[in-house]
Amino acid sequence: MTELKVEHLSVSYGDLVGVADISLKVRAGQVVALLGSNGSGKTTTLNAIAGLVQPSGGRVEWSGEPITGKPAYAIVRKGLALSPEGWRLFAGQTVEQNLRLGAITLADQPRRQAMFERVYALFPRLAERRRQLAGTLSGGERQMLALGRALMSERKLLMLDEPSLGLAPAVVSALYDTLAELHRQGLTLLLAEQSILLALRIADYAYVLQTGRVALEGPADELERNEQVREIYLGVATREQQRRSMGTGR
Amino acid sequence: MVIMQVIVGGLLLGAIYALFSSGLTLIWGMMNFINFAHGEFVMLGMYVALLVVVGIGGGPAVFGIAAAGALFALGVVIYAFLIRHVLRGPMIAQILSTFGLALLLRYAAFWFFSANFVSLPGNALSGTIDLGGIFLPVAQVVAGSVAIVLTLLLQFLLTRTLIGSMLLAVAEDPDAATLMGIRPDRIQALAWGLSAGAAGIAGALLATAYPWSPSVGETFGLIAFVVVAFGGFGSVLGSLYAGLIIGLIQAASGFWLGVIYKDVVVYALFVALLWLRPQGLMGKA
């Protein structure tokens, strides 16, 4: 069974600790959310799973195979994709070239063609702009392209880092509709989000991170009702809690 | 007619400048890395052509491809054993590494080939050609035309093929490229191979038309820097235009001011350009 298992992951940047101790699990077909404020370790966790940063401790296992510390290009080939924070599109290349780069690991031409068609059907806007440079797209279109690029190689697990960051509310709402649709089609998602309500809307299970540790975890609907979560993240936080959650920036 | 001859001759030499400079601009634009040994790659290409002609014989196609192949391999080896490691070091290490490499290659060539001027013997491309009243050596015409075609091919490779797309992706964002499943080290090795290969074949083309000694690397290295500065860092098409212009300026100033002044004019323009437009003539601000 395909599943991602992270055990006691830790990452440090020199003397700085990015992630202290995180364990999590993503099962096939699930949407799992990583929640937490800026600097709580969400990005570092995803980067460590994807192989962009070297973990200093712990294990990452994918479908029973240890992938801890493997380089990112090798991990991608096992079926894990990360759409990084800030999209990281190739701005100097066209929409079509960006999508084509997303399908590098897909050697089979007919399957690649099918993926192109699927992504263009999902985002007709991208089809219209296929010859346009990625750097000239609007924020919403960039997000579509980032998601499309990550989908291009038929990944088994898609990791999205702050997909809603910097987008207009209407665009974010459309994005989450798309993610929900992809989930219905069977895509497994690990989603890092600051906007908790959005993430809990589509997630099955969620982890709340604080200063590089899992502070809280549980099924999404339970967390939504959880007093602590409501206090910290839904704007009814006490002064003390607010100060604490704001003091966690890297 | 003499003026036309100067102009066409300048453009043909400029086309070869464009070809080896496009190799320098590729590395510069892709990796933000200055290769001071690039002129030595051209020089080595010339000697590879000589060794092939003397050793096994064969026409321009044979020694041209041999020079391109040998220098491609050398570029990859230099990347794997030197560049890859100094990339992790400070800027000064990067600069000194290729500067040291240039000295090593130049003096190795002095040691191996001596400082005497040589030229390609029994050249298949001898004789002159009549281009509507302009008389030019066949070697120059062939070398210049081939250089233009190859430079355009490099531009095509970069902008219209998947390999080019991968090269540009690694240039723009190595981490994001890795997330696509690309190995940046392999792509960078390829870029070094292409860069040195372009210099090598340009050297072989130059060898058909001009005599040389191991110190030509220094001259061509400088010219490549001037061309890249004119054309914009990282732009192959810019290198093509700039190479042609530099070739033209050199030929014209050599004709009107005397051969010993042709480089003075080029370098004076170079300094003036850096002063007025530091981003290059065609580069973006």
TrEMBL record, chain A:
Q: Determine the domain of life of the protein's source.
A: Bacteria
**Does ATP-binding show up as a keyword for this record?**
yes
Output one GO MF annotation: ATP hydrolysis activity
Q: What start-end ranges are recorded for coiled-coil regions in this protein?
A: none
What Pfam families does the entry give?
ABC_tran
Q: Which Gene3D superfamilies match?
A: P-loop containing nucleotide triphosphate hydrolases (3.40.50.300)
Residues covered by the ABC transporter domain = 4-236
| Keyword line | Amino-acid transport, ATP-binding, Nucleotide-binding, Transport
The reply to whether Nucleotide-binding figures as a keyword in the UniProt entry is yes
A GO biological-process term: L-amino acid transport
Query: According to its UniProt entry, what is the function of this protein?
Result: Involved in beta-(1-->2)glucan export. Transmembrane domains (TMD) form a pore in the inner membrane and the ATP-binding domain (NBD) is responsible for energy generation.
Family, per the entry? Belongs to the ABC transporter superfamily.
Official protein name in the record? ABC transporter ATP-binding protein
* Protein source organism: Bradyrhizobium centrolobii
Upper lineage is: Bacteria, Pseudomonadati, Pseudomonadota, Alphaproteobacteria, Hyphomicrobiales
TrEMBL record, chain B:
| Superkingdom assignment | Bacteria
Keyword annotations of the record: Amino-acid transport, Cell membrane, Membrane, Transmembrane, Transmembrane helix, Transport
InterPro entries xrefs? ABC_transp_permease (IPR001851), BCAA_transport_permease (IPR052157)
Q: Which GO terms describe its cellular component?
A: plasma membrane
* GO biological processes: amino acid transport
The residues that cross the membrane are: 6-29, 41-59, 65-83, 95-114, 134-158, 189-210, 222-248, 255-276
- What CDD domains is this protein classified in? TM_PBP1_LivH_like
Q: How does it sit in the membrane?
A: Multi-pass membrane protein
Q: Where in the cell is it found?
A: Cell membrane
Task: Show the GO MF annotations.
Answer: transmembrane transporter activity
Q: Does the keyword Transport apply?
A: yes
Pfam families for this protein? BPD_transp_2
Provide the family line. Belongs to the binding-protein-dependent transport system permease family. LivHM subfamily.
Q: What is this protein called?
A: Branched-chain amino acid ABC transporter permease
Q: Which organism is it from?
A: Bradyrhizobium centrolobii
